[in-house]
Amino acid sequence: MYRSAAKSVAVSGHRWRSMSLLVRCPLPRRHFISYPPSINTRNPKQIYRFKDRKTLTTNIKATKRSKESKNVYKEKDHPHVIWWKEKMQMCRKTSSMHLINRLTYSNLLGLDDNLRNGSAKEGTLNWELLKFKSKFPREVLLCRVGEFYEAVGFDACILVEYAGLNPFCGLRSDGVPKAGCPIMNLRQTLDDLTRNGFSVCIVEEIQGPTKARSRKSRFISGHAHPGSPYVFGLVEDDHDLEFPEPMPVIGLSRSAKGYCTVSVLETMKTYSLEDGLTEEAVVTKLRTCHYHHLFLHKSLKNNSSGTARWTEFGEGGLLWGECNGRHFEWIEGDIVNEILFKVKELYGLDDDVSFRNVTIPSENKPHPLHLGTASQIGIIPTEGVPLLLKVLLPSNCTGLPALYIRDLLLNPPAYATASTIQAICKLMSYISCSIPEFTCIAPSKLVKLLELREANHVEFCKIKSALDETLQLHRNSELNEILNLLVYPTWVATGLKIDVELLVNKCESISRTIGDLISLYGENDQKMSSYVNIPSEFFEDMESSWKNRVKKIHLKEAYEEVDKAAESLSLAVTEDFLPIVCRIKATTAPLGGPKGEILYAREHKAIWFKGKRFAPAIWADTPGEKQIKQLQPSIDSKGRKVGEEWFTTVKVEDALTRYHEAGAKAKSMVLELLRGLSTELQDEINILVFASMLLVIAKALFAHVSEGRRRKWVFPTLIQSQRSEEKGQVNRNREMKITGLSPYWFDTAEGSAVLNNIDMKSMFLLTGPNGGGKSSLLRSISAAALLGVCGFMVPAESALIPHFDAIMLHVKSYDSPADGKSSFQIEMSEMRSIVTRATSQSLVLVDEICRGTETAKGTCIAGSIIETLDSVGCLGVVSTHLHDIFNLPLTTKNTVYKAMGSDLVNGKAKPTWKLIDGICRESLAFETAQKEGVPEAIIQRAEHLYNSVYKRDLNSETWKGFHEVCNQPASIQEVTVSSANEITNHMEKFWKDVEDVVCIICHKKLNEFSKTKTMVRCVLVGPREQPPPSTIGASSVYVILRPDKKLYVGETDSLQCRVRAHRSKKDMQNASFLYFLVPGKSVACQLETLLINQLPNHGFKLTNVADGQHRNFGTSDMSLESLNLHR
């Protein structure tokens, strides 16, 4: 029985956020060999195997044909050799340079046949490697040779340079460059190579007996690309592995509409096209994604001015500066066809492989965020800027849900999608039932593992959990409405249109199929073999790799054969080894006497006898002598003697062989069943991708709602933009009104933020002192508008937000020496983009306009920009310290003057950070400098210079005091909660008894203080479920069943955190909770004490009985008429 000796590996990588690409395109399935089956079970086009052949040196005609083909070979591979030469020129390590000096650029491996082991004659390993290399000429080739993965020539230099490996044979100059890594280090090596942008082709050798003096057959087992890991052998693993998001191949071009991007995912066999982008939007996409390769179309060389100098100032310069620091290749022709051709060439795909266009056209979709906007509100991490994503989601919500939210913010959705997301979030905010844990599986992981038939039983359990959670959403009356709404944003994210009825039916069918085959969590009907005289570790190691993977009923005969073999092995060990051990134990020899025991030789997967000095000096036919005579030295798989102390017998070896053969047969059958299930599920891959993405979106939105409720954010009223100029609608559509706006990085629940009211119907020209809050206000407005446009909650008390077609924020600019541009040039480039893109439906926010140039001309440029924006009719804010702008003869019609307020305190101005009407001409520059520690002498001299040139009579009436009245956040709304879980009959009856007793105890207590009858309504949170967002900020009392069958009673104001804390303890991962909400912590503490003291009287055992002996809450004669405890 052949066995694959390669360890399963997976390589981490960066993530790409175009969720619409995660759709599988129908195409012929590709299969890679995971262990040598019969040849007719694989696609022969994907298997490249070469065996030893005799080299014909006497046939002159054959030699001539060989030379002719060699010349063609060189000509065909010349571009690839040049590509590798460029890679060699980028190497910098000393050890790499020594190897590079021994290369020759005449073949794909760079081998010099004049060096030792450099021959590539037919039948040699180098000849075999060249054949493999010709299939994937731009991939690093790693070939399995015994216990190592080796690389030669160019590939060896790459391993030394980027994977930190040492060359074989040191730096000897008489041999070809060669490097490699042990089998156990393959994962790390692949990780290092893909992180540096290289693709790797892995060649395995078939393990097993071979003919004498013959070379082992080899085959390409798989590839590792950036964002696409090597998955060969994963089906044998017993744990889940994290997968990176796929990294696309990107193409950029210029069209009549603007800039165009094409993204291609080889894993998913899909591509998407986005046209009409701005230069800044393209730069943002490049800055926020990690791609495998970048191709630039020659149309980019000709900008709007008609010149071919892409590096000139103006349009195109920003994009060139971004691309110039990256590796790219030029292409021409049709952008889509050329990119697809390059992808097939890059990944070695056949010409008939097709890619599906998953672009979802959407009218009236807002423009993607500009780089400046995304940076200045913390979507892209920027030094000194608070991260928006950090406050949108709880700290424990990471991975795919966080990436979905990030992608949505960078690419705001159309109004229909945004309104649907908001409707979903509103429903989530008020549901009263428990919710699933939402198992998130990367769609690319599903596609690759199922397509290559490498999904293991752990992955199938996760798939079933995801399907069951989707069904849970359907079966629950409250969650079903959310499921119906989630279908629309899932379609937008995946490009798959699947209705709810089809989704539910398929989920039920697939879940049933998996459940019939896979041994699920909690099922443990397949115990490891166990015998007294054999170490348990032996059976654990031999059988854990295949038992408890599939249900025993499918392999009953194979299991029985293994059990019989294990029993025979135990009998052989008992008969041949045990008498010897008993003889030694019976010998009362002093220190240094005979030793012997039955041990597990882990390295050799054998049970042997280990001992010394156990042979008797005189053979007297005593017990054990017969067995001692049967002993023979143990040998390893290569026929070598293991050691002087290891012994075995023929009977034991025969039993071991039988046991290993039975185990190998059972394991092979298990793996075939798992691979067969992967093949069966490939036909349902679109359903699996859709369900997986739906749960990702659901988890992201539930997490956002939970954090939003905790921070006391609100849902805005989102107004759809109207292009028509109908009377009575225009003003409403162009109005943004936000009450109690808070900076998004402040936690309003803690009451530390200064709130502002924004009533915007036109442009604001904003002035204010340094440190007065202008930049913070602009960031706050921008973030609130973006969150509203995406359908999320906003940091305010109430909000009316139009669905803007673009949100553009410019805060500050830095110079770019690499591009030869000053900070003012960068600012003007951004202003050009803003002014040319702004419409009457846009939001434009510019902080301290034209501050990077001479005051007079900068003031005039700023005035002209304000006039332009005013004539466009967009909403927005332009802040400035250029007070001479008010002396210009501006022709604005709708611009309103606003200022950041200040108070006079002890004769000095202090900012209030409140937005007011009017103009503020005081900058507080001297006060700010003094506050930041500028020497007093410099400040005094500055004041003297100011008074001598700019002194004016300031009217004291200019300063007005403003007193802030901050309304306290509204109290949390009481919501009813009800139990809606499906559990086993036994547990259901147990929790029903607990609920009845809890209701009786609490009702009785409440009725003592209230004239009206009140009810306690409980909610059960089952295993792999969590409390709904309605529990955020609400007091509750809960009961938990511990593993020791005792109850624990507690109270909390943060039930979600308390549930996580309990479940993080040992054996509590699947604990169930019963809880009910109460109006206040005092009531919660009183009822907690009451339950602790009363539940034991009803037959329940408690683990925290002592907590009820020292609490005395709620003893006052408080009226409980207002207490309404709901389920």
From TrEMBL:
One Pfam family of this chain: MutS_V
Taxonomic source organism: Deinandra increscens subsp. villosa
Range of residues in the leader sequence: none
Gene Ontology biological process terms from the UniProt entry: mismatch repair
Keywords: ATP-binding, DNA damage, DNA-binding, Nucleotide-binding
Gene Ontology MF terms: ATP binding; mismatched DNA binding
Top-rank lineage group of the source organism: Eukaryota
Protein name, per record: DNA mismatch repair proteins mutS family domain-containing protein
InterPro entries per UniProt: DNA_mismatch_repair_MutS-lik_N (IPR007695), DNA_mismatch_repair_MutS_C (IPR000432), DNA_mismatch_repair_MutS_N (IPR016151), GIY-YIG_endonuc_sf (IPR035901), MtDNA_mismatch_repair_MutS (IPR053276), P-loop_NTPase (IPR027417)
Domain DNA mismatch repair proteins mutS family: 842-858
